[in-house]
Specification:
Radius of gyration: 27 Å
Number of strands: 0
Structural class: mainly alpha
Order of helices and strands: HHHHHHHH
Number of helices: 8
Helix content: over 70%
Strand content: under 5%
Length: 209
């Protein structure tokens, strides 16, 4: 059974599932590209350096942040060099830092919802295609009356089941990659929140230098 046979007998449902698979592959590639700078190792390194800098002397904080490539480090450096630091406006500084972190997390979460929807819809579409195919097969049996050929019935059934298989083939990898990215998002949210709490826990003594 080749791909042309599947497309021929699967009908519209299979074509929709193919569109789902193409869209999901595109989203997965984009998300892998976006997550490339948000590794847990880099986040843990930044947290460790922040802890060391705060323990040694608050004036080392900016230097420690500037040495890291983790994206939140760039935001922290920009905030710590802003006028709010010199004006000792800790509330405004903290709000801006958390706002920038939320913008980062929103960007990482973008397009994950469509992956989740496709992972849920693909098996349902496959089941719908199977039900429609079974209806057609039994309609054929009814029209054939006493001249029903079992081979025709079995052929109609396997053709109907093609859509269920296609739906599962699309849904399983999409669901797995969606869960992977959700986990990465949760990890980065945890690291960012921890890092911001470290910096602003005892403002302004620990930040100004």
């Amino acid at each position: 059974m080749d791909i042309l046979t599947i497309l021929d007998h699967g009908g519209v449902v299979v074509w929709i599932l193919i569109l789902f698979s193409v869209a999901s592959v595109a989203i997965v590639l984009v998300k892998f590209y976006e997550f490339r700078s948000y590794s847990s190792h880099q986040a843990a390194q930044l947290t460790h350096c922040l802890e060391q800098a705060i323990a040694l002397h608050p004036s080392h904080l900016r230097e420690s942040v500037a040495q890291h490539d983790y994206p939140l480090a760039q935001d922290l450096l920009k905030v710590l060099q802003s006028d709010s630091v010199r004006n000792r406006d800790g509330i405004a500084l903290q709000q801006e830092a958390f706002r920038l972190a939320q913008v980062r997390l929103y960007g990482l979460a973008k397009h994950l919802k469509p992956l989740e929807v496709m992972a849920m819809m693909a098996p349902l579409l496959g089941l719908l295609g199977t039900v429609i195919g079974m209806i057609v097969a039994f309609q054929g049996m009814e029209q054939a009356g006493a001249n029903v050929n079992p081979a025709v019935l079995s052929g109609g059934i396997w053709q109907a089941l093609l859509t269920t298989a296609a739906g599962l083939i699309v849904a399983i990898p999409v669901a797995m990659t969606h869960q992977y990215f959700e986990r990465r998002l949760e990890d980065n949210a945890h690291h960012m929140n921890n890092q911001l709490q470290l910096v602003f826990a005892q403002w302004p003594r620990r930040v100004e230098g």
